[in-house]
Structures are given as C-alpha cells and as structure tokens.
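Figure 2 data, in text form.
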Amino acid sequence: MIESNLHNPEMETLQGSALEAVQLRKLKKLVVRVYEKSPYYKNKFDVAGVNPYELNSLEEFSHYPFFTKEEERESQQLSLKQYGHPYGMHVTCDVGDINLTSASSGTTGFPTFQAVTEKDRRMRNEHMARALCRLEIKPGDTALFCGEMSMWVAGIPSIDGLLAYGCNVVPVGAKGSIKIAEMMDMVHPVVALGTPSFFRHMIKKVANETNINLCEVGPKKIIVYGEPGGSVPEVVRELSEGFGGAEIYDIMGGTGCHNPLFVSCKENNGLHIVAPENAYVEILDPETQKPLPMEDGVTGEIVLTGLDRECGPLIRSQVKDLVRVFTSPCACGMPGWRMFIEGRVDDMLLVKGVNVFPNAIRDIALKSPAVLTGNIQVLKFSKSQVIEPPLEVKVECKGNPSQEDKVKIKKKLEGEIQRVLRFRCEAILIDENKLEIEYGPTGKAKLTKKMY
C-alpha cells in the first residue's frame, strides 16, 4: 500500500518495539489517571493488588483486573442512583465536559451508555478518517448513511466522523429498503453504510417490488458494520453482485476504544487495525484467561484497552469476541496485524462437548447459494448453553423447492455441518420469504430464537 492511502502514516505504520514503547508510555499515564480521578478504579486496583505507579512493562499489565460489560452496566446504574447521571462510577472527566452520549439497545432493560468529550470526538473522527482514507474514499464524496441513527454508537458518531472527514453526508437512516433505493437513485452515492443483513434484504425487496436497478444506481463502495457478514466471502460476493460490482468493506469498533478500530481491505483478508497506538489489544486463552502471544494464527478472546479515552476509560475490556489473528503481511499492503471474528463467547452453545457458534452454521448455509439464502435461526428451548443433539436449526431455502429436493438439501446440509463443525443438527427447511427473521433495535439479524 502506498502511503497516500494512509491518513496518518507515522502512527499507522508503527510496529514492534517502537509501537510497544508508545503503548506502554500511554498505559502508564492511563492507569495513574484513572486511579487518581476515579475512586471506583482506585478501589478496583487496590483490591486486585496492583500499583499503577509501578507499572513497568506490558507483561505486568496482564495482572490488572478485567472490565466486563456487566460491570460497566452496574457502574452506570450505581452512578445514576448516587449522582444522578448514567455515565458510571468509573467516569474520569467532569460530566459537564461530556459532548455526546450514545447507548446500546438496552436488551437487559438498562442501556449501556457511551459518552465522549470533545477531545474524544476528535480522536474518534481521526480513526474514521484513517478507515475512509484506506478505502480510497475522498472528502467531497457523497456518503449515504442507511443505518439506525437514534442512540446507537454506530449511528450519530459515524455521521460525525463522515462529516469531519469532509464527506457530503446524506443521513437517510433506517427508512426501509425502497425509500433508500429511491434516495440512491437521486443522489448517486459513492459509498453507502449499513448492516449487511439490511443490504441483503434490500437487494431482494427492491428487485421484487420496484423497477429500480441497484446495479445502476447503487454506490461504488459499501461499508457494513454492526454484525457478522461483512468479512464472509459469500456475503461479500452477494452484496457486490447485488449492487453492480460494488466494493464491500467491513468496519468494526471496540468497546472502550475510539471507533472505528478495524477495517477490512480489497483482499477481504481480515480486519486490519487502523490505530495501533491508541489501543492496547490482548488475546486471551478462553479457558485460562491468560494472554497468548500475538503471533500469526493465534486464536482467542480479544481484550481491549483504549489508551486515549478521556471519558470513562475501560481498562482491559472483555468484549466477548473470539478472534483469529494474523501478523503476516497482507497482499493489500495495509500495515499492521489483522483478524477474523470467529464468534461470540456469549453466543456459544455446547452440543455434546463441541463448541458451536450460530454464525458458523450460517457460513455453511451461505456456501450453497443455489439452494439456500444463508438465513438461519438456531432454536433454543431453554436458557442453558448446553444442548442435547440434534440442535434444531431453521434454514431458508432459495425459492420453493419440491419435497424431493428438500430431502436432498437437508441431507447434504446436515452432513456438511457434521463434517465441518462436528455436531449433529436437525435442519428445518423453510421456503424463501417464509422464515420470520428477527432484527434487534439497531438492525442486527438475530441468529438465535428463544423457544422458551
């Protein structure tokens, strides 16, 4: 990659001992700052027996306690009760300096708030600029934002970054497939942003219900986010073909860090880190919770520490993603390491001793585009993560195949799942458009359906 495609070449190309020196320097300042400014962190560090004034190596940082999503939510509930604000007992800035507040969808009844100061916004916009520059998106390009805006962390903050970069932003939002297609026909965007499941749905709906040709009016580039799919070759191919050869890119943030933190490339060869000096990333053994060496092919649970977050830093945030890391050079030429998302720790099911991730089942269904759409639903009949085989999975067929064809499709799919994923499933085939796909408040397709 030529440096003209890097927004900040000096920082984006940092690696090895030079990068580690920057990360350690920032970590030293961070742990002292949160210890001195937050009684919550002071108590947390004291209980764990770590002294922030004596942090001398990255290895020593592994002794610091984790910060879980549950802990973050409890901290915010407590601050709301005691201080009248929902930003957490771990907040390290004056709440009057908070400049923008986002939140999760609050599926547990209490949303998780993500607040930033003006300084945090500048840093986040810097990350967005790095991602856009790598994708050869230029200031002045028209960007059609097709996602949920509201409170979602990928909504207004993404628009903020696009505006700061200089894009002509058209914030159409989640207005439905046909409305968005009509807008594409009018503004002819260079890039469109949204979830992969929305764009997959849009391709079918627009083709069936309108005369709009997305291959002609669609964007040259599509950035997807918020859920698995944007790095799956079959989904990338489907979206690209549906939008007339558009380039498809995946973008990802990281809880506690400034977003975005990762972006894919033209080679579709993993998510590349764009701000290595602003985030300290650890890969843990899922069973021992001990750090693994950051080397080519390592697989484990990712833990993130944002090094430059002014409001409410999360020290060693466990985001519950299992990833596979590659440190070898990518053919695209982008600097730094890259990763693939293997699944969610909290989505994992245990079927007769085998770890099963719903997105892995979906990926196998996507490999048969002639007969299957790739839409699936894993049926759960209890709260337990332990499932007695066979695991029941609803799978959407392409079109309306005959009963004889369904028998063949079912046998082949079940055999492939048994061969690749090593567990037995019961595939329930559903005709196209008959599978009721559930979406979360932010447009993410749910791969698991509760039957209890």
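Caption note: The chain has a mean pLDDT of 92.
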